[in-house]
Amino acid sequence: MRALGCLVVLCLASTATADPVGERVAAGEELAKQARWTEAIESFKAADKIEKRAKHACLIALAYVRRELWPQAEVFLTLCHERATASDRVPDWVQLAEQQLKEKLAKAKVAVVHIRVVPAEIASQTSIGVSAFEPDELFAPRTIHLGHGKHLITAKAPGRETRQQTIEIVDDSPREVMVDFDAKAPEVIPAAAKPVAKGPSKIPLIVTSVGGALVFAGAGYHLFAFKSTRDDLAAAPDDAAYTALEGKFDSQKRNTIILYSVGAAVVVTGLVLGYRMRKSERKPSVGAMVAPGGAMVVMEWNR
After folding, report:
1. How far apart are the first and last CA of the chain?
2. Would you say residue 16 has pLDDT above 50?
3. Phi/psi at 188 (5° precision)
4. For the chain, which end, N or C, has fewer CB atoms within 10 Å of the first or last residue's CB respectively?
5. pLDDT, tens digit, for every residue of 141-192?
6. Domain 109-184 classified CATH 2.60.40?
7. CATH of domain 20-107
8. CA nearest 179: which of 161, 192, 193, 194?
9. What phi-psi label fits residue 159: left (phi over 0), alpha (psi between -120 and 50 degrees) or beta?
């Protein structure tokens, strides 16, 4: 007798742990009592993946009503009725949930959207997804309500290329979305690459810098070479000493003038280039030449 009692207990325990659907439904109902609607929906969906039942769809719909996500509630309430059988009846409380949904949809900022599939013979095989829904919440082509804003409608059918359409709901007026699987998909033309804007040419800055360096070099040469020779020439004690320094003085004087002149000319050239190049796309050519008798700066540009 004791052995028989143990066997009955074991059988009951085995039955209790062998009902994963019931466990998930019970967990979802407990979460719903705590107003943890999102988690409750996940539990009900987990049960529905194991066994498709009307009760599961009804519970998911009720949770969406509580979350005030009316389009999702609408879809799952319809699924609840479609699945109902003599052994899997629609719960009594569904009628109250439907009445609440009807009242809320009448006041909410939503539009009636009729989704139609072409060709009609594959409509029953087509799954529709809406960007506002969860990815696993697919349904057959039907009429739904969508809130204001942009929505991406995705349609999938066996052996057909996936179709997508974006609609924008700006008011409550009804509209129709026709998904045509026979229509040729629009050719996607890659956007032309934007031209990379080139920065201003550095040539004027370089030319101006070179000219500044020449002026600076002329100042240094003037201070440390030419000035010293000029001072020595002015202090020459006699004609012989003066004559000996005169050639050096003339050479250094010429070099100082050349450095100053060329540097100033190149600085001016750089400034002019900066002005001219803002009006010209062609790069100019610049050259400078130092000669025994002076200096020359050559600048060429085309407009």
Report:
1. 113
2. no
3. -90, 115
4. N
5. 999 999 999 999 999 999 999 999 999 999 999 999 999 999 876 665 666 6
6. yes
7. 1.25.40
8. 161
9. left
